[in-house]
Every structure is written in structure tokens, then in C-alpha cells.
Amino acid sequence: MYAFKERSLHMSLSLHVNESFFLIDHKNGETWSESFDAVLVCTGHHAEKNEPSFPGLSDFKGKVLHSHDYREPWEFVGKRILIIGIGNSGGDMAVELSRVGQVFLSTRRGTWILSRISNGGMPVDIAYIRRFIFKFVHFLPRSVLNNLAASTLNKRIDHAMFGLKADFPPLAQHPMVNDDLANRIVCGSVKIKTDVKQFTSNGVEFVDGTFEDNIDVVILATGYIFGFPFIEKDVVDVKENRLPFFKYMFPPDLEHKTLATIGCIQPLGAIMPIAELQCRLATRVFKGDVTLPSRAQMWEDIRAKEAHMAKQYVKSQRHTIQVEYIPFMDELAELVGCKPDIVEIFKKDPKLAMHVFFGPCTPYQFRLTGSGRWEGARDAIMTTMDRVRFPLATRCNPQESKGALVPHLLKLLIIIAAVILLRFLFA
Fold this sequence. Notes:
globular, three-stranded antiparallel β-sheet, 19 strands, five-stranded parallel β-sheet, disordered N terminus, alpha/beta
């Protein structure tokens, strides 16, 4: 495979059906084409800024920008700022800008806020992204899960009292992850507003009839339009933010599976481990070590994922590439040949199996067997919690609590009993 090396700093490219590139050197004005054995597209899926129009916005005399163009808060000191959109970018900007100015955060539907920190200060992904949790919550009715999620989230922030309550259940939308927004609302430096009705030359009216005057800045935290502008439509055609790719990677209609996109997913968990597994799969497909399913089977998988998202999530262009961390990692790992088999692991190494099933689902689990196997994976899994605690132990306490898997077994028994009871009640 060819490498761009330093020339890539000045080049753009266009991928065509004949699987060749036309490359343009913007520095020297040269244009040429080259053929490659395979291509990994790692540009992400955010191709263009989504900049919706609002009545009167063209008459607004203040500054208007998209969140993509926001860099730092210092140029907004003392300003009255309207942020439209309550996704993760909108929430993070609202918190940061509220320390230098007055922020109004506009939302159509509201949101649910998930903290990065769980009970006892444990990182939320370490606490909850575990195989035994994913295994048993799937036995619960969706309505019960939503009620449990709403109750848990409202214990930290009463979403209705803060004006944040969404018109959909917690699991029907990708959550906002934010630890500081509630504090800024309490301080009064962030005020939650409804959707925008119209703009005036220096103010904004909201759909609930309220009005805010003397607005200096409007920031559109309204997301992006997905796509790959450098790839011909005959190769990949993205419509309404829908990426018709097998495992969000492979265009199913290409005769040769020599093109794969990496990281075009929105997971409930970290994206980097998924992208790493996608790369492992792509390279094995390119080498011929893995054969993908038939075109019909790939389209069946794509349609099944679209149907699942339509059933679970609020209809929105945000919810077209949602994946659940452990199930999707297992899907990729099964194709790569490195999916951990808990039963087989238990036969040979019961202690390791307990950590794999009850402990945090880290990427090390996908280095235990098969392609890419790593000798240090077992030790890394067994010492995961040591590395979680290590950066926090800047002051040693006399009675340090290290935790163990035994409490999780107790929790598991409680969960199993609850699942059996709920299944009986809702049968």
C-alpha cells in the first residue's frame, strides 16, 4: 500500500469507482492519480456543519457562529450568549462560557444528563460497562429500564425542576455527558430556554413567549451533516445521515472489499476501542484472512440495525449510527476471531473468567485469544482496577478499600432475583 508521507500535508483527494485516487497538491498545483490496494477512511463522519435557519436570524446584528468554529471563551467576556442545541457540545460550551458571560441554552426537547462519575467516584464506564450488567438488563422490559434510568438520573439532578426534562425517556436518545451544567444553572449563569421562535435585530423570542434582549452572540450547537465529500456518490452515498455500511465500515455493494470507514459510530461507551477493533477487522479483510458475508446478508444486517434504532431512539438525524459498546465489540470480535468465550475461559482459568464477566469490559479482553493475541492480556485484565485507583492515590489512607469481585457476585444475585420477579410480573 502506498504512503502519502509528508506530501499529505498539502493534498486533497477524490476516490472513484475504479478504486483509484486523484490527488491534488494545493501547494504546487499538481494533479495526479494513483491506485492503492486498499483504503481506510479515518476522517470521521462530520462532513459539513448543520446550520439551520431561524426566522429573523438574517436580521440579527450580533455574531453568529457554529460550535465547530468555537475555540476559547476569552473573546466572549461580558457577553450575553445564546447557545442553540443541548447535545454534548452545547452543554460543554454553556458551562465554559458561563464563567465569562451570561448564557441562555435553548432546547427543543430537553435532555437527560449523565455524569462521568458514578457512586463512590468510580468512572461511570468502569462501573457499568460490564458483561454481567449488559447480559441481565436485556431481560428487563424497556419501560422498566427507562424508569430505573430516570430514577437514577433524577437522584442527582431533578430534571423537571431544572427545566431540563425531556419529552422522551432516558434510553431514547444519546445522553448529554456533563458534570457541571447543574451547578452553572444553580448559579444563574446558565438559563435553560425553550426552542427559538424568531430573532429580532438584537434579541430572540422563544416558543413559550419569553424574550431575551441584548443578545451579543448566537452559537449554533446543531450538529453536523454526515458524509464523505471526496468519495464519488456511486461508491458511497450518505442520505439523511444514514451510513449504509456493514458494521458501519464496508459499503456492501462494492465488488472488492478494499474500502472501509473507521470510527463512524456513536457508541454508549468509548469510541477508541471500537475503532481499534474495526481497524483489526479491516486489515484482515484486506489481506484475505477474513471473508465478509454475502451482499444480501450484509444488507440484512444493516436493515436490522436501522430497525433497532428506529424502535429504540427518538427520530432524529443524531440517531443513525448508535451502537451499544459490548454487543458491537463482540460483533466485530467474532468476525476478527478474537471474541472471548466465557465458558471456555472458565474451564481453563476460573479466576480470569470471573474478571472478564463481572469486571470492566476493557479492550484487553479482545487480546486473550485469536488474531492479535497478547501474552500480557490476562495480567492487564486482572489489574485493571489497580490502574483505575493509581492516579487517585496521591495521599495514602490508613484503611484503603481496594474492592473486589465478591460484592459484584452479591449484586448479581440481587439482579437475577429482580429480573425473575419482574419477568413474572410482566409476563
